[in-house]
Design goal:
about 180 residues, alpha+beta, 4 helices
Length: about 180
């Protein structure tokens, strides 16, 4: 009887060890997966460049499947995402090589735009669309090398509440430039 208990206890211990080992070795693949490359990024390596510095604040990010040129009253043509939300660029970033300087608290107000699968372009040249790898490994969309963002105070399509903020944030044009008022 004692021998029978030892065998059962050993089997139970072994089963518990294997179960714990299996649970301990699992990973959250969603947090380790990076979005797919854009079709343009795969063909235009000049706009895909190395990582930015600092904490990316990637928990507060926007995703899109499309970049679209839209005419905005008094602003000319600007780029929006697949939901019609205005996209911005910042003068504190750089285009050559692409680098995002908006990290930490900045990325909570100005949400980095990440590719969600292959990104299509309407009214925007595919050759200008690319990505930059952020410090967290995520691929942020770029336009002519400039990292793209959404502004948290733009709550519905067509708003441009971030235009000219801090004299460094501007709606991005289809060529990657800064949008300015038109007459």
């Amino acid at each position: 009887m004692t021998r029978h208990r030892i065998v059962l206890a050993t089997a139970a211990g072994l089963a518990s060890t294997l179960l714990l080992a299996a649970c301990g070795s699992s990973t959250d693949s969603a947090s380790n997966a990076s979005p797919g490359k854009t079709a343009a990024a795969a063909t235009d390596s000049a706009t895909s460049t190395p990582a930015d510095s600092g904490d990316s604040g990637s928990a507060d990010m926007a995703t899109t499947t499309m970049l679209m040129a839209k005419e905005m009253q008094g602003m000319g043509s600007v780029v929006t995402d697949d939901k019609g939300m205005t996209l911005y660029r910042s003068d504190m970033d750089q285009a050559t090589p692409s680098m995002s300087m908006c990290t930490g608290d900045c990325a909570k107000t100005w949400m980095p735009v990440m590719a969600q699968g292959d990104v299509q372009a309407m009214g925007v040249k595919n050759s200008l669309v690319g990505t930059v790898k952020r410090s967290d490994g995520m691929e942020q969309l770029t336009l002519d090398g400039w990292p793209l963002y959404r502004y948290m105070d733009d709550t519905k399509a067509g708003q441009m509440n971030g235009q000219g903020k801090e004299k460094m944030w501007f709606a991005v044009t289809p060529s990657g430039g800064k949008s300015t008022m038109t007459s």
